Amino acid sequence: MRDNDISINKLRDMIVTVDGPAGSGKSTTAQALSERLGLTYLDTGAMYRAVTWKVLQSGIDPDDREAVTNIAEETSLEIDISDSAPVLFVDGVPTGSEIRGPEVSEAVSPVSRHPGVRRAMIRFQRKAGNRGGIVAEGRDTGSTVFPFAHVKIYLVADMEARTKRRVKQLKQMGITQTEDEIRHNLAIRDEIDSGREYSPLVRPVGAFVVDTSGITIEDQVTIVEEIIRRESSRLGDLYEPKGRKNPYKRGRSAYFSIVQMMIKFFARLLFGLRIYGSETLRFSESFFFASNHISWYDSTLVGSTLERETWFVAKKELFTNRFLSWLLRKQHAIPIDRKGFNRSTIKAIDNAFKRGDSVLMFPEGTRSKTGRLKDFKPGIGMLAYRSGKTIVPAYISGSNALKDCFLRRRRLEVRIGRAIRIPDGCESDDRKRDYAVLSSMIHEAMKMLEDETYA
Ligand code: DC
Question: Among 25, 55, 61, 297, which residue has the fewest nearby CB atoms (within 10 Å)?
């Protein structure tokens, strides 16, 4: 499986996400964009609506977590994406206006709040969109479903504009609801959508915010289209030049390159190391790598696959032995106090980036005994954001059972995920929030690699 390998330097392979609250103009924008750019429109809200419709049909209470989750899991969703406006099939039946009515609109936020429902939908959305060529629209498509989307858009609009749009939309469908009722429904949905524990409505880090309150549909689509075309061409420029050397690839020091190549060679020979998704490394830039951690050998093994002169942090206790300390530093280890980041660690990381090198971090802090991804230590979002670098998730498996890998009873694998970029022009004034959101985006991207590993 080499799913991660997609050519990212073409507009038609892109993943674009459009998120925002109800009535901010997402559907109109996403639909128009998909037509103008030749991409497939992926309406994730329709999937939550379809499940909600089924829940209501079965007479189940939308707040009944277990029953609702069961429905979401047993529902067969299919989508024919050969058309630019794909139709969603629920248990083989095409969905229509029944999922847009007020009953569904009222129950959809409570239904989509349950983590089990979200996981089922997210799995389906990734299957449909992972290969690229899509404009995904929803609440969490840029933050959770596709944290590595090439362009992320976040639409906002004031309450009055949003209410007016809903009134018009419902009228076209022959449904009458008073402005007050609609305003009330929007406010409640905002609250539930933004407040839920897993995968809430948030502005993803790296998203361009567009306020659609006072502008025409035509203008809002044009603004977003310009952003996408500009970012697409910027990504194309970042891709390594054909036939010429990528200046960021491999080490600048011969010693470092040779050691990395030798480690990779022997890991392949002895433990059958496999590397997936290295297409990401073909961009001409240095990276902030974030990997899971299950063994002492991770920095060595993961490091050998990254094709960059990469620094990594290691707990400072390892540096007490003089020989070991010399060896570690030669391999670009940066000492870290496990109680937290101190100035010298941060400075060493900054210096590595200043030299044009990359940095590899293990955000879980310590090795996972179960082999599965743990929660992150605080600080990773801040470090990643502050670095100003493109973030690349990595996932290693098998390094905690090298003997089995040697005997070929297990596989030693490193998966390199797609890049999470934070382009210029999408900074926010709430840094603390951004750090937390970015941390969960990195976690989700690594979790996806874990899912691929154990699929
Ligand atoms: O975009 P819409 O109004 O059709 O979405 C309906 C509801 O579905 C929305 O109130 C919350 C939920 N939803 C979600 O939780 N996550 C998404 N990615 C899309 C929609």
Answer: 61
